[in-house]
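hey
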């Protein structure tokens, strides 16, 4: 039995978290038989006490379901610290606000690196929806930082009149997304129903609806037509997030790292099944309707939509590049300087650098965008390839 067959067999037995399944079924009944995929995704990931992130499962790291860059290597945070330190220095000081801090690895490594550089922020704010993850972050930071952990505080929303650096690593791809299919002259919304003992895809005409108009606006910006049966996603929640960011940022820079593309590449005719991905015990697949509450669900980011929302919120599109370019520009290779090439340490560092930068790993798939307000300083991490023209 291969990994996909094992996952399907497990789903048939469990169907996911029973209480969460019941909650979503009730939402479907209340909605008249089907809900949007955005509503399903939001409940599956963030339903209080039951959703994948709220439930506090061990999602992150080698023993969880997936590995993000901060868990992959502390070198990631060291490079981010170079950029953060530069911005704080040119602002004359400020705070850091991290959205969705995961295991707390980025916060711990970043604060340690900034302390070594003598460039600690005034405060470090974490915006985290999950009480279980908040507790995990507190424990991790206390064990790593000692008294310095007192510099960190948790918030429910962006602080007002913020000055400093906002960080979000793999946050946008977890925001609820809608799915749609191109069918003849119509747009069809891919919705979620309960049929034959499980969650199933159903379709509804969405032409003329709010969603339909939103998608049609996107499609009008493309230089190509999408073929019959083409399936993809859109996530208006990300634009609302950027609007909230714009309302809070008085001066400074927001650095957003995530899997994604510019719009023309995102909605390329050959990307005919969309970008939806699920992760369970390091196995990737494309069925979000199984293992409900027990697996991660993510949708790649349309960075053109992010840029449009930023400009609409009065932010500057300061820079856009790949994670590999950003890390190399902020001194990633310096980690190997002075290390014996024949040593085990050198081999470990080389492996970490490859995971962070190779095209087949995170290097090209993950992009980083810098949004700014009242900041005209330089950005070391974006001194290589400028990809804003792709947006």
């Amino acid at each position: 039995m291969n990994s996909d067959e094992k996952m399907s067999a497990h789903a048939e037995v469990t169907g996911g978290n029973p209480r969460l399944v019941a909650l979503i079924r009730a939402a479907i009944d209340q909605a008249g038989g089907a809900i949007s995929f955005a509503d399903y995704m939001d409940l599956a990931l963030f339903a209080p006490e039951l959703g994948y992130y709220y439930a506090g499962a061990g999602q992150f790291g080698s023993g969880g379901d997936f590995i993000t860059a901060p868990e992959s290597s502390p070198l990631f945070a060291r490079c981010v610290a170079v950029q953060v330190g530069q911005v704080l220095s040119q602002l004359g000081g400020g705070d850091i606000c991290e959205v969705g801090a995961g295991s707390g690895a980025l916060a711990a490594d970043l604060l340690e690196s900034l302390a070594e550089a003598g460039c600690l922020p005034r405060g470090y704010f974490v915006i985290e929806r999950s009480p279980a993850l908040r507790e995990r972050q507190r424990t991790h930071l206390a064990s790593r930082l000692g008294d310095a952990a007192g510099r960190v505080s948790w918030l429910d929303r962006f602080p007002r009149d913020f000055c400093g650096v906002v960080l979000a690593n793999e946050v946008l791809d977890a925001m609820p997304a809608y799915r749609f299919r191109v069918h003849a002259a119509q747009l069809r919304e891919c919705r979620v129903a309960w049929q034959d003992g499980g969650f199933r895809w159903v379709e509804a005409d969405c032409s003329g609806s709010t969603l339909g108009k939103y998608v049609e606006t996107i499609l009008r910006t493309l230089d190509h037509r999408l073929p019959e049966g083409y399936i993809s996603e859109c996530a208006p929640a990300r634009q609302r997030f950027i609007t909230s960011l714009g309302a809070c940022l008085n001066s400074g820079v927001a650095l957003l790292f995530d899997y994604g593309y510019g719009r023309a590449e995102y909605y390329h005719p050959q990307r005919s099944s969309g970008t939806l991905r699920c992760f369970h015990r390091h196995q990737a697949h494309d069925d979000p309707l199984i293992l409900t509450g027990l697996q991660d669900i993510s949708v790649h980011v349309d960075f053109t939509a992010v840029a449009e929302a930023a400009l609409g919120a009065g932010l500057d599109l300061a820079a856009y590049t790949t994670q590999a370019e950003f890390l190399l520009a902020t001194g990633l290779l310096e980690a190997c300087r002075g290390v014996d090439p024949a040593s085990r340490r050198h081999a470990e560092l080389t492996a970490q650098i490859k995971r962070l930068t190779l095209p087949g790993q995170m290097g090209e798939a993950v992009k980083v965008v810098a949004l700014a307000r009242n900041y005209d300083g330089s950005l070391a991490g974006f001194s290589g390839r400028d990809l804003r023209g792709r947006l």
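The two ends are 43 Å apart (CA to CA). Residues 74-91 form the longest helix (18 residues).
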